[in-house]
Amino acid sequence: MLNIPTRWCNLTVILLIAAQSSAFSLEKPNYNVDKSDPIQNCWWKSGVFYQIYPRSFMDSNGDGIGDLRGIIERLDYLHDNGIDGFWLSPIFKSPMADFGYDISDYFAIQPEYGTMDDFDALVAAANDRGLAVILDFVPNHTSDEHEWFKKSEMREPGYENFYVWHPGRPHPQDKSARPLPPSNWVSFFRGSAWQWSELRKEYYLHQFSIKQPDLNYRNPAVVEKMKEVMRFWLARGVAGYRIDAVPTLFEVAQDVNGQYPDEPLSGNTNDPEDPGYLVHIFTQDRNETLDMVYQWRAVTDQFQQEHGGRERIIMAETYSPIEIAMRYYGNDTVPGAQIPFNFHLITDLKQNMSAIELQSTIEYWLEHMPKLNSVVPNWVLGNHDQHRVASRFGNDMIDIMNMILLSLPGVSVTYNWIQQPAMLVQKNTSTQHGTLNEPPSSGILQRMLDFPPEIIHGFLSHQTLPK
Ligand SMILES: [Ca+2]
Ligand SMILES: [Ca+2]
Predict the structure, then answer these.
(1) For a surface tag, which of 31, 274, 279, 332 has the fewest beta carbons within 10 Å of its beta carbon?
(2) Among the bound ligands, the one closest to the CA of 66
(3) Active site includes 117?
(4) Tell me, what's the pLDDT at 442?
């Protein structure tokens, strides 16, 4: 028996009435699906996607850390729930300063998650069940422990300009003092986005943490290297990418004097360390960034043309204003991301929302979508940066929010499907990407064990999960 509060039974009636009286519909319309090619290019257009956070999803060897073999053990769970594909938060080699969003080798698996053989086995087992595997692509920055950064810091030929370096502004009073940062830009993690390197005697840019230096996308060698990364995993059978922190890829180019401009103050806060202190007109959503997404789409399309199989997809992470978010879909002449994430179910709705507010949030995306044949809407109910559905809307809203998600037209994306009550006790840890779910601790694990095993997926070791 589904647990639906009376308040929401009433609201559901309102929604259904609204559906009959406007363009809004709870039925899944046929969004430009090409029936002539039902498998290759349409598979994702009404797809149900599940985000797996590998570190906490399923631990196969009892070391307390989720791993690839653990995911393999739970593929039937995904398949039996009607999932079409899943995207994996980063599984690549990393010092874990930002839980894998600081990659030190794009071509290697983090050892605690498994081996390349385990990865290949995961893809094969997923494909056997018709499940698409989507990888997290983290292009804006590497770890400062990546060999590219070490070489760049040493000015090794070929790597000098792999990152965004600048000598800084001369100190106005003391010419012999260390130069000042090149601009007033602020990191998402607070404070200056520029970090001095004693080794190179220059500043490097980090839009996120000090340990996440920004790659220099104005260097064609960087662009080509990252396309090589994409092709490497496509060749191992992945069905596409979720692309991290897309808006921050490019910053404005230096002016004729080799300087970067300051960003204007937002007026929203007096705290100059707060990223909200500035309006990010020079560091986010540059036209070059949109073009890079289009180039990556060309990489995945070309791969399909050369190797066949289903359309490879791109999911783009952007919390940008809707007019900009829509541009990531592409335009009349060039396609972009099939799924520029629509986070409005997360960002615009609060506990005790009305049905009308929900309807407005849904229509907001639909009304702004470009009128292109290939474009379908998508709906994201949760991710690793956000509190769970139970925490955001209340325990009694879990079922109905999932039903609404699955009733909406187009693509559905969720995180830990059941959005279990135990997540109410989960703490969050501040990181470069806002708040990330805390890694498993014995206290959290114990509280989760209070719940029936069939509703728990995540945070459990192989030994503790009843069969
Ligand atoms: Ca493990
Ligand atoms: Ca950047």
Answers:
(1) 332
(2) 1
(3) no
(4) 30
